[in-house]
Design brief:
Layout lengths: L6 H33 L2 E5 L3 E2 L3 E9 L7 E7 L3 E3 L4 E2 L11 E9 L3 E14 L3 E15 L6 H5 L6 E7 L9 H12 L12 E9 L4 E9 L4 E9 L5 H15 L46 E12 L6 E11 L6 E7 L3 E5 L2 E21 L2 E18 L8 E18 L2 E12 L5 E3 L2 E4 L5 E11 L1
Parallel strand pairs: 2-9, 10-11
Antiparallel strand pairs: 1-3, 3-7, 4-6, 4-8, 5-7, 8-9, 11-12, 12-13, 14-15, 14-24, 15-16, 16-18, 17-18, 18-19, 19-20, 20-21, 21-24, 22-23
Length: 466
């Protein structure tokens, strides 16, 4: 028989396994927090001793940024110091590729006292995916009073630097250029003022433009962090842009340094004795209304045009033929033009094996022209109407059964007119004629000539209008 293992050993093994499981669970719970702590950002601030009137730099060291982008945002609380640069990027670090990034934050110590400098850093931590992390740090900065010997110098504001952006809009090329404006401002302030935008305390932006009244300039002054300090609009009605350029130079100098820019006005000498007083001159003005006759607009008048033209007809007679057309176009005020037209075509001969005959067509008609355009001596009329007339057999060796025939036809025309000089007008027109009767002319009961179902005309002529 086998000996039974004592129960004490089983309990010991069970306790040992439970302790191991608890350790694994605790390690799994603490591992992410430890990694997160190692991956978080940290900031250290180092400030030099300061006195009122100093310009200095606070060193900000950022750890844990890795190789990812970084944004540093410094700000101050209190009136003792002022932060000159509101934002710094990773590229502005002393060594952007270093493990510990070191930034120089420019500040100005204005007054003796205490302020708080707060700096926040925004960066990224990337594992499977990137996430945004932030760190903040603050430091109390104490500004000491200036020595007695330098008190007067500390009371005056430190000379600030500025950047200039000056644009001449189209039409204002004669205004001073950016270099000329900068030279004029620095001559007025008697020192160098303008530097690059990256090193400037103030940003001066402006533009010059041409206006219907003369010239105009718009100026904006802001701090390096983008805070707008002032805006001015200047204008000039002088023929040239030089006067505006002088005003812009003075205004920019005043906006940058109001203590240095103004030129002292020459003192006015007091008169030795008061000038004799003269009796006041009283000027009376009286408003007098002078009526000015304004001629009434001319009343609309009738326009009448009479012209004669040479026409070429096809399908109107047995053979193509030439003839003449006389047209009268009347344009009443407030109504569409009305065209009265008459046409006559000389003899057109039709023949067969039995003989020949000569035809003479004549017609006259009335048309309305709903399309009426007139511009600078040119006119276009589109007309619709009807004609009535007759076809007469006037000669030939063949006796037709019908010597005269009354005809009617629909008439559409497109007429163009050109007022050449004075009342003289040239005219070109295209006509479309649709006869109402199509039965043939007969001789001895046999068909001799049948009119066409559609005819056309083109005419060219001249006339007068009044």
């Amino acid at each position: 028989m086998h000996a039974r293992r004592p129960p004490v050993k089983k309990k010991a093994l069970l306790c040992r396994a439970m302790w191991r499981l608890a350790g694994l669970v605790l390690f799994a719970a603490l591992a992410p927090a430890t990694a997160l702590a190692q991956e978080s950002l940290s900031i250290e601030l180092e400030a030099p001793p300061l006195r009122a009137g100093d310009r200095a730099e606070v060193i900000a060291r950022v750890r844990g940024a890795g190789s990812h982008p970084l944004l540093l945002t410094p700000r101050s609380e209190g009136t003792a110091i002022e932060v000159v640069r509101g934002r710094l990027l990773r590229a502005e670090a002393i060594d952007p590729s270093a493990e510990v990034l070191e930034f120089r934050v420019p500040i100005i110590a204005h007054l003796a006292g205490t302020s708080v400098l707060r700096v926040s850093a925004d960066g990224y931590v990337c594992e499977a995916r990137c996430r945004l992390v932030r760190a903040e740090a603050s430091r109390v900065v104490t500004v000491a009073a200036s020595p007695a010997g330098a008190r007067k110098q500390s009371e005056a504001p430190a000379a600030s630097t500025s950047s200039l952006s000056w644009v001449r809009m189209p039409g204002a090329e004669t205004c001073p250029s950016s270099a000329e404006l900068a030279r004029a401002v620095e001559e007025r302030l008697a020192r160098r003022v303008f530097v690059s935008a990256a090193d400037a305390d103030l940003a001066v932006e402006g533009r010059a433009e041409r206006t219907p009244e003369g010239w105009r300039a718009v100026l904006h002054v802001s701090r390096a962090d983008g805070t707008l300090l002032g805006e001015r609009t200047l204008s000039s009605e002088e023929p040239g842009c030089d006067a505006l350029g002088r005003r812009v130079a003075l205004t920019v100098a005043l906006m940058i340094d109001p203590l240095t820019a103004p030129e002292p006005a020459p003192p006015r000498a007091a008169p030795a004795e008061p000038p004799p007083t003269e009796p006041p001159v009283i000027v009376r003005t009286e408003r007098v209304e002078v009526p000015v006759p304004v001629p009434a607009p001319p009343a609309p008048r009738w326009r009448v045009e009479v012209d004669a033209s040479l026409a070429f007809a096809l399908g109107l007679q047995p053979t193509p033929s030439l003839g003449g057309i006389t047209t009268v176009i009347v344009e009443p005020p407030g109504f569409i033009p009305i065209a009265l037209e008459g046409a006559l075509f000389p003899f057109a001969r039709a023949g067969s094996s039995a003989g020949h005959a000569d035809f003479l067509p004549v017609h006259a008609g009335l048309s309305l022209c709903p399309l009426a355009l007139r511009e600078r001596g040119l006119a276009l009329h589109g007309c619709l109407g009807a004609d009535a007339g007759a076809v007469v057999v006037v000669g030939g060796d063949l006796v037709l059964d019908e010597r005269e025939r009354v005809i009617g036809q629909a008439h559409a025309a497109l007429r163009g007119h050109w007022d050449v000089v004075g009342p003289l007008t040239l005219r070109l027109a295209v006509h479309l004629l649709v006869p109402f009767r199509h039965e043939p002319f007969t001789a001895g009961g046999n068909a001799f000539y049948r009119p066409e179902p559609v005819a056309g005309m083109v005419d060219l002529g001249a006339g007068v209008h009044f």
